[in-house]
């Protein structure tokens, strides 16, 4: 990849963060094909998180390894190959599973959660639980959890802005477009298509595509505006997160107003519709609020409705 170009476009702070993320997944002297046949170690799992599309993407030479249709890395969202504290960190993921998932209304293991990312965020299909790739990813997430447990409080502290607070209004897509042009387009492209690592798409993107065929699908968590806004406020622009709540809200809505791959069967999500997040951008719902409001707000009236519903149910 031409890192000089990246430096000129996005600045030294973002570049250092990206290069650090990419280099953490490299195993010097070993090609991608060698990694595919390697043992299911945490090192291989780390590589999978760092450079997912190089091993499991739609362009890899080994057709049997093609497990995703996007060209994202897990580390596109899990900054620092998942080791960075704060929003979307993988360091505490292992401690949260197994748990009951509102989306499936069933018990969810860490393997289920990884496969949820594979089918939604990576727009692909599930990995077999006994596959080297799944075992390696779980091993790496477990390693991060053990490393986190051994750290002091100061090392675990996330260096992020104050947590996102939802503005009491509908998201402004025009304002979001302006924020995107000023603060996001230099890295992610004016068309949201990302910055490819090279002409060979097997190598993925230095800065990920935010919409379009190479991005996450409509079932992904980041396709929810509030989830996306929390991430944007905490982590973006990369290495210099300084957007206020309103800008994060508007640009997250703008990004999620753009076309992206569909996912079949979304109507089956959240069997108990009362547990469906208010910003889920697809129906059905247990309320009469319009789809547009579930996508872009204002969310306070919807939240108040469900609070009253829950209060009534307890009586």
Description:
There is one protein chain. This protein is mainly alpha-helical. The chain has three domains: 3-156, Cytochrome Bc1 Complex, Chain D, domain 2, CATH 1.10.760.10; 173-256, Cytochrome c-like domain (Cytochrome Bc1 Complex, Chain D, domain 2); 270-314, no CATH class. Helices cover 42% and strands 3% of the residues. It is built from 13 helices and four strands. It has helices spanning 3-10, 12-24, 32-36, 42-50, 52-56, 110-119, 132-150, 153-156, 173-188, 225-235, 245-256, 291-296, 300-314, and strands at residues 99-101, 106-108, 195-196, 205-207. The strands form two sheets. It has a two-stranded antiparallel sheet. Helix 10 (225-235) crosses helix 11. Mean pLDDT is 90; it is low at 1-9 and 11-37.
Salient structural properties:
mainly alpha, Cytochrome Bc1 Complex, Chain D, domain 2, two-stranded antiparallel ribbon, 13 helices, 42% helix
